[in-house]
Amino acid sequence: MARHLLFRQVVGDLSLLNSSPFSKLLDSCLHSKSAPDTRRVHARIIKTQFSSEIFIQNRLIDAYGKCGCLEDASKVFNKMPERNTFTWNSFITALLKLGFLDEAARLFGSIPEPDQCSWNSMVSGFAQHDRFDESIEYFVQMHKENFVLNEYSFGSALSACAGLADKKMGTQIHASVMKSRYSLDVYMGSALIDMYAKCGSVASARNVFDGMNERNTVSWNSLITCYEQNGPTFEALDVFVRMMDYGLEPDEVTLASVVSACASLLAIKEGLQIHARVVKFDKFRDDLVLSNTLVDMYAKGGRVEEARRVFDRMRNRYLVSEISMVSGYAKAARVTERNIVSWNALIAGYTQNGDNEEAIGLFCLLKQESIRPTHYTFGNLLNASANLADLKLGRQAHTHVLKHGFRLHSGPEHDIFLGNTLINMYMKCGSAEDGGLVFKNMVERDWVSWNAMIVGYAQNGHGTEALAMFKEMLVAGQKPDHVTMIGVLCACVHTQGWLRRDAITSTQ
């Protein structure tokens, strides 16, 4: 109410003695991120003697940047007859926030006198947009230029090291942190734990945690996630129990990591206890990531009915939220993108538990609701078709794969995965010819691809083709494993042939 009253007073009064009211209004626009309000304030400023005041112009750039109005911010910046370092920093921050990193880098190179804030913006901005190498380069150059490194510099650089899984650089930054006044900072400790966790160095992460004089929820979350992602997974549950014993309340990040650990361990009893806590507190019920992990846990544990109940509650809630709560296409897209995790987990749960018709029905429902499937979705659909030995359904699934842009000749890992799954499906459906065509069209293959062909040919009675494929595998430099040899032995039975002992031992 006070903000709206001030707005009416200011926009209707052109005889103000100073720019302070405009500054307060722009601060309000910064917090509300309202582009219309910012433009209305700007329109009034232009009619006053404060229109050329550098402080007000800087605030305008800042406000437009926060609102996502880069074009407006650019116009203010370009028309300014005089600029200071804050001007440059505000516009660079706007560029970085909206993802225009190359433009920000060019502008940064033009700053007459960059300050600590300028450098921190570059280190942080590039790290936040996954340009980790460049983030580290800015951090190193900042240090060379003798700028003081603060918690923002160190935190962003450690985030970049985590993104790169660069333990060597992370350890060097850790050494610099220990020489600084941030060595005991709880947030710095949490960032170090996260960095070592992402680098797979569990012992180093634990050492940092044990050496912290003070810990907060983020610190405990970082260590729990470290064990959940790197193992031993049971340690994640032990750390969670310790956290509770210390009297710290878990948040949604804590619970999602613990539920994920329960899923990996198939610890359904513990998972049920966590779910009970989720249901008890309203603030956790609507968390999408946490709900995704619950669906995954129940599906992996064979409790498909419970998984479906969580899923249905999520699906109904988020369909409503996309209509009534979500503002803007980008937010709606994020909801859909993240929600596919739950669809995949439940479809996989049905497939793994032999409920193949349910899996296919859920895929059809997914298509009706216009949710874009991923390679995991199609992998599970193809597995369901294979389990049912339904060639017609498998071919329809193959058509869907191609329609959604997965090209088996393009080489990415997910396309190799789909290629292998297609071979397996066709072989189990009795169509060795189709399986062979998929294999032929795959530019990149792994040992799973070769095994699928050898075992598939053997199981379909094509012993000669299986043995020929085995020879090709050896020529291609792929090392056979026990699955390969089972397929080869099965092929020998079908061909009433035998393998010389030296041929087998030469592959070991």
The CA-CA distance between the termini, in Å, is 79 Å
Helix/strand-derived category reads mainly alpha
And the CATH topology of the domain at 21-113? Serine Threonine Protein Phosphatase 5, Tetratricopeptide repeat
Q: Which architecture of the domain at 21-113 does the CATH hierarchy give at level 2?
A: Alpha Horseshoe
The first-level CATH class name of the domain at 21-113: Mainly Alpha
Main sheet summary:
none
Return residue spans where pLDDT drops below 50 for at least 5 consecutive residues: 5-10, 319-338, 500-506
Apparent shape: elongated
What portion of residues is helical? over 70%
SSE series: HHHHHHHHHHHHHHHHHHHHHHHHHHHHHH
Number of DSSP strands?
0
**Strand percentage, roughly?**
under 5%
Instruction: Return Rg in Å.
Output: 29 Å
How many individual helices? Answer: 30
Summed over residues and divided by their number, the pLDDT gives a mean of: 86
CATH superfamily of the domain at 21-113: Tetratricopeptide repeat domain
